[in-house]
Design a protein that fits this description.
398 residues, alpha+beta, Heat Shock Protein 90, 2 domains, 5-stranded mixed sheet, 61% helix, 11% strand
Length: 398
C-alpha cells in the first residue's frame, strides 16, 4: 500500500493563487516575451499548469519539484511566457533550499550562483550590451536570489531549533540537578535523623524492656528515669533538626550542630544508659595536634561516635567500651571498640542502617572507614569501628 502525503494547506493556496493569477494575465493578454517558437498564447498555459501543480510538492518533494520546474521554465521560453510561471519557479527554488535535504540546500545556492555568473558572462561575450547584463541580473533574481533567501531563512530556522534544543537540554540538566540535590538532601536528613534519634530510642527500648521484665521497684524506677531522660534528650535533638530544616526561611540564628567538645556529655550519657547492661564507657582523647576542625568533620566524627555507642548498647557484651580520638598528619582518627559476643539481658533491635550512614558520612568527606571484629588476647573478640577523616579545609559534598 502506497502512502501519499497530503500537500500542506499553504502549498495548495500558492498553487491556486499562481494558477489563477497566470490565467488572469493570459486573459488580459499580458506576456513577457515575443517572437518565440510557439506564438499561440494558449501554449504558455501548459508550463503554468505544470508549475502550479509542482507547488503541491514544494515541501514533500522539493528537489523533484525544482528539477521538473526548471524543465517547465525552459519550455516556457519557447512560448510567449507568463510572469506567473516565472514567479512560481522562484518559489520552487526557495522551497528546495528551505525544505530540501541539508546537502542539497547547501549546493543549490552555489549552483545558482555559478549558473548566474556563467550565463551572464556567456551573454556578454556573445552580444556585449546592456541587455546582456540585464539578462544576467534577471537570471540572478530568478535563480540565485530565491536560493540565497532560502539559505538565510533555513540558517535562522536551524539556529532557532538548536537554541530550543539547548534550552530543553539545559532544562533537563537543571531538573536532573534538582532531583540529585533533593535526593542528597533526603539522604542527609535521613542520616541526621537516624544518628540523633537511634541512640535515645535504643536506650528507651532496652530500659523499658528491663522495667517490664524485672519485678523490682528500684530497677523499674531507675529504668523509668533513664527512659525519661532519653525522651527529653531525643525531643531536644528533634527540635534541633527541625530548626535546621527551617534555617533557610527563619530570621533567627541557626541551631548549633554538635561538636567534639560535647563528646564528654555524650560518653557520660551513654555510660548511664548502658550501666545496667554491664558496659563501661570511657573517652581517650589522644590528639597530638590542636586547632579548630572544619564543621563537617566535627559533625561527622560526633555522629560516628554516637552511632557506634548506640550499636554497642544494642549488641556489645558486658565489658569496656572505649572511644579514642587521634589527630596527626592532617587526619582525624576516630575509634570505638567494644566486646563482641552474646550477652544476656534485653537488647534493642537494629536495622543495619547505622553502618551505612557512617560510611556515607566518611565517603562524603573523602575519608576511610573500617568496621569489624578484631581478636583479643584472652581469645574473645572486639568490635572495632575506625574512621580516618581528612581535616584540611575543602568543599565538602552534602
Amino acid at each position: 500500500m502506497i502512502s501519499v502525503t497530503r500537500p500542506h494547506r499553504d502549498d495548495v493556496l500558492l498553487a491556486v493563487v499562481g494558477l489563477s493569477g497566470g490565467a488572469i494575465l493570459w486573459l488580459i493578454g499580458i506576456h513577457i516575451q515575443n517572437g518565440r517558437l510557439f506564438e499561440a498564447p494558449w501554449v504558455s498555459l501548459l508550463p503554468l499548469v505544470v508549475m502550479s501543480a509542482l507547488e503541491l510538492l514544494r515541501r514533500n518533494a522539493p528537489l523533484t519539484a525544482l528539477v521538473v520546474g526548471a524543465l517547465a521554465l525552459v519550455a516556457d521560453q519557447f512560448t510567449v511566457g507568463s510572469l506567473a510561471t516565472l514567479l512560481l519557479f522562484t518559489d520552487l527554488v526557495y522551497a528546495a533550499v528551505l525544505y530540501g535535504a541539508p546537502a542539497a540546500s547547501r549546493r543549490i545556492p552555489v549552483i545558482a550562483l555559478l549558473v548566474t555568473v556563467a550565463t551572464t558572462v556567456g551573454f556578454v561575450a556573445w552580444a556585449p550590451s546592456a541587455d546582456a547584463v540585464l539578462i544576467g541580473i534577471v537570471i540572478g533574481m530568478v535563480f540565485f536570489g530565491p536560493a540565497l533567501t532560502g539559505a538565510s531563512v533555513r540558517n535562522h530556522r536551524d539556529a532557532a531549533d538548536a537554541a530550543r534544543l539547548r534550552a530543553d537540554q539545559t532544562a533537563l540538566l537543571a531538573e536532573m540537578d534538582r532531583a540529585q540535590a533533593v535526593t542528597a538532601e533526603r539522604s542527609r536528613m535521613a542520616r541526621e535523623l537516624h544518628d540523633m534519634v537511634a541512640n535515645h530510642l535504643s536506650a528507651i527500648a532496652i530500659h523499658s524492656t528491663a522495667a517490664l521484665s524485672i519485678d523490682d521497684a528500684g530497677t523499674s524506677r531507675e529504668a523509668l528515669g533513664v527512659i525519661r531522660q532519653n525522651s527529653v534528650d531525643g525531643l531536644a535533638e528533634m527540635r534541633r533538626l527541625i530548626g535546621l530544616l527551617r534555617e533557610s526561611g527563619a530570621a533567627g540564628p541557626p541551631s548549633a550542630a554538635p561538636t567534639l567538645a560535647s563528646l564528654d556529655t555524650l560518653v557520660g550519657q551513654a555510660g548511664a544508659n548502658s550501666a545496667s547492661s554491664g558496659l563501661t564507657v570511657t573517652l581517650d582523647d589522644a590528639r597530638e595536634e590542636s586547632g579548630p576542625l572544619p564543621a563537617p568533620v566535627e559533625l561527622a566524627a560526633y555522629r560516628i561516635v554516637q552511632e557506634s555507642l548506640t550499636n554497642a548498647l544494642k549488641h556489645a557484651a558486658p565489658g569496656p567500651v572505649t572511644v579514642r580520638l587521634g589527630r596527626s598528619c592532617g587526619v582525624l582518627t576516630v575509634e570505638v571498640s567494644s566486646v563482641l559476643g552474646d550477652r544476656p539481658g534485653p537488647r534493642a533491635p537494629g536495622s543495619g542502617a547505622g553502618l551505612v550512614g557512617m560510611r556515607e558520612r566518611v565517603a562524603l568527606l573523602g575519608g576511610t572507614m573500617d568496621a569489624g571484629p578484631e581478636p583479643r588476647s584472652d581469645g574473645s573478640k572486639t568490635w572495632l569501628v575506625r574512621a580516618e577523616l581528612p581535616v584540611e579545609e575543602r568543599t565538602y559534598r552534602t
